[in-house]
Specification:
heterodimer; A: 337 residues; alpha+beta; 3 domains; four-stranded antiparallel β-sheet; B: 686 residues; five-stranded antiparallel β-sheet; elongated
């Protein structure tokens, strides 16, 4: 981290061109309004010759010189046909993007370090458009997601990026580009989506064992324990109407062999069982690592369908379970301080 | 466990990469194929092998060979080229190397950059064909090549799914078709300038002067637009058809090659054959550097022009020799006498022998034809002048064609070249006509010789200079007439202007198909031939012979006085800037452009606001109609109904493509009526 910071600090001295470029890019992007729906027009589509385009230009010049020197009228025809096609391809490349509409669907929350999927819908009112590539602006150039848009139709595609830290993040800047039809020009547009994505802390890997469950006094906890794997175990015989996913198949198989009955996971016991995931239980870790461990625990407790509460400095979420509760806990972890 | 699959099915089941590679290989093969005649056998074998191997790799999805292999192959090919041609430079070795490079590069298609190298090498290879031939057939074949290469380029930029070749091909065709107007504009207006530096040109002869003439070996004449000289007539002008600048006079003929006499007989004051009469014409020549030690002076220039550091000498045959090559531009003044006699009492035995010399076995059929021609009753007692006139008539009436691309003659038997031209194919340019004329005259025992030089000049520019280009090079003839001396004969001029390039003529014995066609429709074959010849003629006129002369003519027709190539360049730049401006204007207009429905919605909102309704931009007509009803009650009903009509026009089952103007007019009238009733109802209570 300090090395990277140092590098960033001294970049203007080490690589003045790169630094100026970065600064210009940042300034330029600041000027772009953030929006979740973008219509590409003359004003926000840029176009420049690609490296292949420069090569093509050199080829055309060589052909022209050969035609002049050998006085070949058909050589002129070839040269000018290629030049004309090149000029037309510039317009076609630009037209591939011009008039395209881009729309971003609200993104789902994700964990830091794992990819966030951005659902983008491209719409075209005009003719069919081919070879449109999307990528995050910061990502490497070869990570383009390619897509075609039919005439007057829509196309869906996904672009993903990996958020490095937890918190509420703005969506990364996207570039949409094309080189269709001849690859001599690269037209591109820069898009700053307005949507934000909530990023949970990266869960600890491998997960630490869950803290011991806090049992209430009325509890007769003989058949229950919290396993090392974070699973809350409590079983009872199968009752009609139990959902299939509650059946503990491994155990059921053994019971069936010995003439027993199907067994189900006993959720009612888990519900009575209270688990506190506490900041204090992660003593000795850096704050971010604590959050990571807590995130892993929330996941594990949720998988085990245990009632769990979350306690952070300045934040306490009473024990509960279910999807909404899990989300609340993770949000709390993501946005803490 | 042989899996039998029909080829079509296999092709359809190929993975995308393999199919694209096979397509590119097919295009390369098509591009290289017409070169087979110019390539050494090892190159053909190597190219075929490499392309076949690459196709196999593509079909079996095998990895490409290691990088050293193409490099080793290239080194070997370079060595073999050296061995075959003894040089790496020049046309044939260059083409050989380009073909080998192209084939080997297909083994290296690793990155996008490699693919582009293949495409661009392909375009270059297409150009090399034009060094050998610029015929319609070659042009058509190469058009297919360019289309194929563009299709492959388009395919490379359609990364999604498996686009069909047809789709990519039509997209490529569309790109090229849209580019065609630019091509035509540039072709017409791009100033034709001479070669920028000297290039070795082998078998495609350029027009221009040389010290020898080899009939038949030149199948196609490249029009060389370099300037040979500029001439200015300070006193009075001379019509272009009388401008004959004399170069080497070719008297000796060895059956293949016409050359000047090797011995240069000096002229003394006593035996000078030149007699001039009438008024002389003063002229000033600026001569570009040439490769021959002679001055192309106007017929007839008796006195040497004054040249610094150089001595000019008139030869017996009226050509002017200089004692060294002119490597710099020369400028001099001389006086010509258009009326002259190149005469002496009689030819000496030596001269007679030189000008009647005809190797044995050359053009036997033409010689027999000449004897038969002479036997015609009207020509029994003819003088050389009458014979010449009869020959002109023969040329005019016997369907001879003047063309710069007659094809080669005498490939089977070089001695029969003249026979093939004169009696069979009858297509040629000035050299063919002049040489045959001389052979016919000599075979009849009449002394004759070929004169080469320049004929004609462009119209005078602003400073009075008239340009003579290498393409003005010409060959004509002279015959000996007792008493009159050497008389000029220009059989090419006999192919009358309206007949030059005209259609019809030669009828080779019909083949099986031709014979069948002939029996079915006796007119079809001549008609088809006539059509083809018209096409070929237009090709020659408009494409191959389109040069600076035509460009400048075009400018004159556009009303520019004394045009120069700078004017042409200016016009081109102006036209291109004009197009760019139109483009900018369109872009500006496009930015202002609004959806017609949005425009109508804004206008409707304006009308309703005048009635005192809020009419917010996001409200559809249905909501506006509701507002109207709420506000005006039954009096507003017609207006509300109109708004509902708009709703149907925009979103209903019978939606219109564009908003209706008539509807808007009714709406406005209705709104005005409503306003007036509102005003009167408000006024009434008071």
């Amino acid at each position: 981290m300090p090395a990277a910071a140092l590098r960033a600090r001294f970049l203007p001295l080490l690589h003045p061109v790169t630094a100026t470029r970065q600064r210009f890019r940042a300034w330029w992007q600041q000027r772009l309004p953030r929006t979740d729906a973008l219509l590409l027009t003359q004003r926000n589509v840029y176009i420049l010759p690609s490296r292949a385009g420069l090569m093509f230009g050199a080829t055309v010049i060589v052909l022209l010189l050969a035609s002049i020197n050998y006085q070949l009228n058909l050589g002129y025809v070839l040269t000018f046909l290629l030049a004309g096609s090149g000029v037309v391809s510039m317009h076609l490349t630009h037209n591939t993007l011009r008039g395209l509409t881009l729309q971003l669907r609200p993104p789902k929350p994700a964990f830091a370090g794992s990819p966030v999927v951005m659902d983008v819908t491209l719409g075209s009112t005009g003719p069919a458009r081919y070879g449109i590539g999307l990528r995050t602006e910061a990502g490497p150039a070869d990570t383009l997601t390619w897509i075609n848009v039919d005439a007057g139709g829509q196309a869906h595609t996904q672009v993903s990026f990996v958020p490095p830290r937890r918190g509420l993040h703005a969506m990364p800047v996207l570039t949409v580009e094309t080189r269709f039809p001849l690859g001599l020009f690269r037209a591109w547009a820069v898009w700053r989506p307005a949507a934000t994505v909530l990023v949970y802390p990266q869960p600890e890997q491998p997960p630490a064992p869950l803290p011991p469950a806090h049992t209430s006094p009325s509890e007769t906890a003989t058949a229950r324990r919290v396993s090392d794997g974070g699973e809350v175990e409590g079983i009872r015989t199968y009752r009609r109407g139990d959902p299939l996913k509650l059946v503990v198949w491994k155990k059921a198989a053994r019971y069936l062999e010995t003439g027993g009955d199907l067994v189900s996971r006993d959720t009612s016991t888990a519900a009575r069982h209270e688990l506190w995931l506490d900041w204090q239980q992660c003593a000795g870790l850096a704050p971010e690592d604590r959050l990571s461990r807590l995130a892993a625990w929330v996941q594990a407790a949720d998988r085990g369908q245990a009632r769990h509460g979350l306690r952070l400095p300045g934040l306490e979420i009473p024990p509960d379970h279910g999807e909404n509760h899990r989300r609340r806990c993770l949000e709390g972890l993501a946005l803490w301080q | 466990m042989a899996v039998t699959m029909s080829p079509a099915l296999r092709w359809r089941n190929l993975p995308r990469d393999a199919r694209d590679t096979l397509f590119l290989l097919a295009v390369i093969l098509w591009t290289v194929l017409p070169h087979v005649g110019h390539l050494p056998p090892w190159c053909i074998a190597l190219t075929g092998l490499v392309l076949a191997w690459r196709a196999h790799l593509a079909v079996t999805n095998a990895p490409l060979p290691p990088r050293w292999l193409p490099i080793v192959a290239l080194a070997t090919a370079t060595a073999l080229t050296m061995l075959s041609f003894r040089t790496l430079f020049g046309k044939d070795p260059g083409v050989t190397m380009a073909v080998v490079l192209m084939a080997l590069k297909t083994l290296e298609l690793r990155a996008r950059r490699d693919a582009f190298v293949v495409f661009f090498l392909g375009f270059f290879l297409v150009l090399t064909h034009f060094l050998y031939s610029q015929s319609i057939a070659v042009a058509a074949a190469m058009l297919v090549s360019v289309w194929g290469l563009l299709t492959a380029l388009v395919l490379a930029h359609m990364p999604v799914g498996q686009p069909s070749l047809k789709q990519a091909g039509s997209l490529a065709l569309r790109t090229a078709a849209l580019g065609a107007p630019i091509m035509v504009l540039l072709f017409v207006m791009f100033p034709r300038i001479g070669p920028l530096w000297g290039v070795p040109q082998a078998s495609l002869a350029g027009t221009g002067l040389s010290n020898s003439m080899n009939l038949g070996s030149v199948g196609e004449l490249a029009v060389d637009d370099r300037i040979a000289l500029r001439v200015r007539f300070p006193d009075r002008s001379v019509p272009a058809q009388r401008l004959y600048f004399r170069g080497p006079v070719l008297t000796r003929f060895d059956g293949n090659l016409w050359t000047p006499l090797s011995i240069d007989y000096p002229i003394t004051a006593r035996n000078d054959p030149l007699e001039t009469s009438g008024a002389g014409v003063r002229y000033e020549i600026t001569l570009e550097p040439t490769s021959l030690p002679l001055l192309p002076l106007l017929d007839a220039t008796p006195e040497a022009p004054s040249l610094e550091g150089m001595a000019a000498r008139r030869r017996e045959d009226l050509s002017w020799a200089v004692n060294r090559l002119t490597r710099e531009r020369l400028r001099f003044t001389a006086i010509a006498y258009p009326d002259y006699r190149l005469s002496q009492e009689a030819l000496t035995d030596r001269q007679r022998q030189e000008n009647l010399q005809l190797p044995d076995g050359v053009a036997p059929r033409t010689r027999a034809w000449a004897q038969a021609f002479r036997q015609r009753p009207d020509l029994a007692e003819a003088t050389p002048a009458q014979l010449t006139a009869a020959l002109y008539r023969h040329i005019r009436t016997s369907q001879y064609t003047y063309t710069l691309t007659p094809g080669t003659y005498g490939e089977a038997d070089s001695k029969a070249a003249i026979d093939e031209f004169w009696l069979d194919r009858r297509q040629g340019f000035c050299e063919h006509f002049a040489a045959t004329y001389v052979v016919v005259m000599r075979s009849l025992g009449l002394p004759a010789r070929i004169v080469t030089g320049y004929q004609g000049a462009e119209a005078a520019d602003g400073d009075g200079f008239r340009t003579v280009r290498q393409s003005n090079a010409h060959a004509w003839a002279e015959y000996w007439q007792e008493g009159a001396g050497w008389v000029r004969a220009d059989p090419t001029a006999a192919v009358a202007p309206d007949r030059i390039f005209s259609s019809r003529s030669l009828r080779p014995p019909p083949g099986i198909v031709g014979g069948a066609l002939e029996t079915m429709s006796p007119n079809l074959v001549p008609q088809l031939r006539s059509l083809w010849e018209t096409l070929d003629n237009r090709w020659n006129q408009w494409v191959l012979n389109y040069s600076r002369g035509q460009q400048l003519d075009l400018l004159s027709q556009l009303g520019i006085d004394a045009p120069s190539w700078q004017d042409l360049a200016k016009l081109l730049v102006l036209t291109l800037s004009g197009f760019a401006l139109v483009g900018v204007a369109w872009a500006w207009w496009d930015r202002q452009r609004q959806d017609p429905w949005q425009r109508q919605a804004a206008a409707v909102a304006g009308v309703l606001r005048r009635l005192g309704l809020p009419a917010l931009p996001h409200q559809p007509p249905r909501q506006l109609a509701g507002d109207v009803r709420a506000r005006f009650g039954p009096t507003g009903e017609p207006l509300a109904a109109l708004l509902m009509v708009a709703e149907h026009q925009r979103y209903g089952r019978e939606a219109l493509a564009r908003p209706s103007r008539a509807w808007f007019a009714t709406l406005r009238t209705e709104a005005r009526r409503l306003q007036s009733t509102k005003a009167s109802s408000e006024a009434a209570p008071r």
